[in-house]
Amino acid sequence: MCTKAARCCSGADYFPKGLIVGLDLNPIQLEDPSGRIRTYSGKQQDTSLLDRIGAETAPDGFDVIIDDCSHIGELTRISFWHLFDNHLKPGGLYVIEDWSTGYWDSWFDGVSFQPRRVNGFSPGLFHFRSLMARLYRSTLVTRVPFAQKFIIGLKRVINGRQFRSHDYGLVGFIKELVDECGMADITRLILVSRRSAVQNFKICEFHRVKFSSLSLLSNSAGPAPG
Known about the structure:
The chain contains eight helices and six strands; from the N terminus they run αββαβαβαααααββ.
């Protein structure tokens, strides 16, 4: 499945035996002598439409999904999770194009990168942070109500400015998906833990991100818990 008309033609060349399905905001007019291209018009965030496309063209799931659509973070998030969870085969490939629009002032939800000031290395502060880490694991603290929560709060304040990050637009969504890759650790202390649904996560040149779903887990994911 692809989400741009031009992709349909190139997809038919790349996959000479495959069925190519395209979704575009505007009606798609293509010459298709192969008879292997199906086109739809609509919005990528219309999950009912995505379900209909999947039911009509790939009831067993798509092998490859390429999102070259709006390049808007919140819309890409909606279509990604719906298609990834419900319409991508286990082991299938999901590609998101042009994630770097989140760095563009001219883009809908993008802003230019502004490095924020970060704390330099301080041996004294590092020693204090080490002390907090040891206290958190100590028997004394585990016996005092709310002591561990207090230490966690201090860690959030002190450690919160160690690294700079840009979280706008599609850039922010791609970084959000890093949390999905760490889901086993995120959920390790809650009642219902789970592994990540993403088997491979690769940021490529030309502003492309590739994901492959993990067999047997591609229907058990969703946005990381907030």
